[in-house]
Amino acid sequence: MPGIRNFTLVIRGERRERDPSMTATSSAIGGRLNRDSDDLLVVEDLKTHFEVPAGMVKAVDGVSFSLGRGRTLGVVGESGSGKTVLSRTLMNLNLGSNVHSSGSAIFEGRQLVGVKPKQLRDLWGLDIAMVFQDPMTSLNPVVKVGRQVTEHIRKHLGVSKAEARETAIQLLRSVRIPEAESRFEAYPHELSGGMRQRVSIAIALACGPKLLLADEPTTALDVTVQHQILNLLAQQRRERNMAMVLVTHDLGVVAGRTDEIAVMYAGRIVEKASTKVLFSDVRHPYTEALLRSIPKTSNRNHTRLAAIAGRPPDLINPPSGCKFSPRCPYAQPKCFEEEPPEVNAFEDHLFSCHYPVGTEENKAAWDRNLAAGRPETVAVATGSVSEVDIRAKGEEILADLTTSEGAD
Questions:
Q1: With contact defined as beta carbons under 8 Å apart, do 183 and 172 qualify?
Q2: Angle subtended at Cα 147 by Cα 143 and Cα 152, rounded to the nearest 5 degrees
Q3: In 287-367, beta strands by DSSP E
Q4: Which pLDDT value is given to residue 271?
Q5: Per-residue pLDDT averaged across 238-267, rounded?
């Protein structure tokens, strides 16, 4: 059976040949897209709103980007920024009569938005797969691990029960689960959190998908296991030439593991650039705030962490103008009245801000707010992390990124 032979090569880690013409893809924050002939996924003006008694929750509100084969896009933001809803919208998993999705998401020429779930069943698992943040709830607690791994192998590939078992055990080994044969017969509750997440990854990779959506795959894991899981995902992506969307709230997680980073706030992408450019030349105040909140190893013990002032906006009645303006240390009257324009800087660095970080206008806005005693500005100015420290943190992460690439 030729199909099985090809599949076995994939799950054993056989490297797929990559077309030398494959290049990085770029995307727009609003509606413009720089399309590449090798785009695997093209998303334009994607919106997902939830109708609730209090009003319409605009969870994803006009997101556009493109992703090439073999590339990794990191989607970063606080809880409630729309990251998970975005990934679930791409999988068409936001079900219910109160869900309103619009826009376009084209995967290999096939529309993913506005179609019935049964029309996408042949894509789920085979071409597009997802790793959820909590394996304890995404895995069926009363079904053995082996059956959960083999279920869609048999469905999509039409192999026998014995062949599916052999393939599943190879998959469990490939994600570094010890004693794979015995774990095949175990229930999820008999495994540790790290092992359950590895099982979830094995299930997602079982049919060799072209696109993997990883929704905060390390949230419930300790730091050591987090590192192992992230390295495993990166290894599998390289070996399979698989595109990946890595969703997280931690900029440190995506450093060194992504080609591009999109920062989401209030359901929109507010800044997007290649990983190196984003860390070396932060432009949006929200991205700067996320970077500021990363603990520094050089800080003394018990140093107070730098939190972002305020809270995420109400997605039913969001503030007018820039959605980050109520929390921004640089906000000016214009920010509360007008949506900031999309700016495309060099090297496809896109951001939406009236007073971009690092500009003279930004410095003047800071000085005015500091003199006026704006609480959000004073909080940053008197905090344990200064603007100089933010730059230093970006340079530190960039240096680590360069070192890791050299080691590879």
A1: yes
A2: 120
A3: 342-345, 349-352
A4: 97
A5: 91
In angstroms, the Cα distances linking 138 to 80, 114, 126, 132, 145 are: 20, 24, 18, 7, 12
Those residues whose C-beta lies under 8 Å from the C-beta of residue 231, and which sit 6 or more positions away, are none
Question: Of 349, 389, 161, 142, whose CA–CA distance to 260 is shortest?
Answer: 349
pTM: 0.81
Q: What is the pLDDT of residue 314?
A: 94
pLDDT of residue 37: 55
In DSSP terms, 273 is beta-bridged to: 261
Please name which of 232, 219, 223 lies closest in space to residue 134, comparing C-alpha atoms: 219
Instruction: Select from 317, 312, 273 the least CA-distant residue to 289.
Output: 312
| Model confidence pLDDT, tens digit, residues 325-381 | 999 999 999 999 999 988 988 778 999 999 999 999 999 999 999 999 999 998 888
Nearest Cα neighbor of 91 from 181, 192, 213, 217 is 213
Query: 112 in helix, strand or coil?
Result: coil
Contacts of 309 (CB under 8 A, 6+ apart): 327, 329, 375, 376, 379, 380
Q: What is the DSSP letter of 350?
A: E
Give the H/E segment covering residue 83: helix 83-90
Q: Which amino acid does the sequence have at 134?
A: D
Q: Specify the higher pLDDT residue, 125 or 60.
A: 60
Pairing of strands 39-52, 55-68: antiparallel
- CB-based contacts of 28: which residues, under 8 Å, 6+ apart? 34, 64, 65, 342, 344, 350
Sorted by sequence, the CB contacts under 8 Å of residue 20 that are 6+ apart come out as: none
Alpha carbons 340 and 354: distance in angstroms, whole number = 5
CB 214 within 8 A of CB 233: yes
